[in-house]
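Hi everyone, sorry if this is the wrong subforum. Our group has a chain we'd like a structural model of before ordering constructs, and none of us has done structure prediction before. Sequence below.
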Amino acid sequence: MKAIQNFFIKYRHAWVFLYGLIYLPWFGWLEKHVTSDFHVIHMAIDDSIPFIEYFVIPYFLWFAYIAVSITYFFFQDKKDFYKLCIFLFTGMTIFLIVSTIYPNGHHLRPEQFYHENIFTKMTAWLYKADTPTNLFPSIHVYNSLGVHFAITKSESLRNKKRIKALSFILCTSIILSTMFLKQHSFFDVITAFAMAAVLYGLIYVKTTREQKSFKKQLRRI
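Answer:
Right subforum, don't worry. Here is the predicted structure as tokens:
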């Protein structure tokens, strides 16, 4: 009994997962109500991006990438965990607000697949499960960037070059998959990058500078 109590005390930062009680119902409501009457997202470059079904693999790996990373930081480093969650949840909330105020969607998905294989079957399942609405900024892109930032900035992973390299490859593959699967417009991707750049500056760059400044002040005392 005491061991269980100590466990909950040690990992009391689990309270941040309560954000799911806000995000999931809100996103579910958007998926049900934003179906046809929406602003169409499209850029000319979208028409030049081919459909490549093989990218369904990294697209689905996104779920493991996010879940494993959050779990790692939850148990390994509370400070990095908080930073990652602030980054992710702030962007996800902005996405929900944008989708609510400016309902959006696209018509980029192919009407039919020109050949059948396991990858096109997986893509067809994805299309049925996920509507082509509520697109920007792309959460697939934004959260992938957030996790990669957390990994590269982590003290506990400072010397883990292979992990950082694998994270970069997976992050890049996931970002490309959103366009090659016709899940997102190029516009969704660049807006996700823009939002990630702002939050990166606020959460990682600013706090790092403040920590360095604080250490300098301590040395002077």
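For your construct planning: The helical segments are 2-10, 20-33, 56-76, 78-101, 118-129, 139-153, 161-180, 186-220. The chain has a mean pLDDT of 91.
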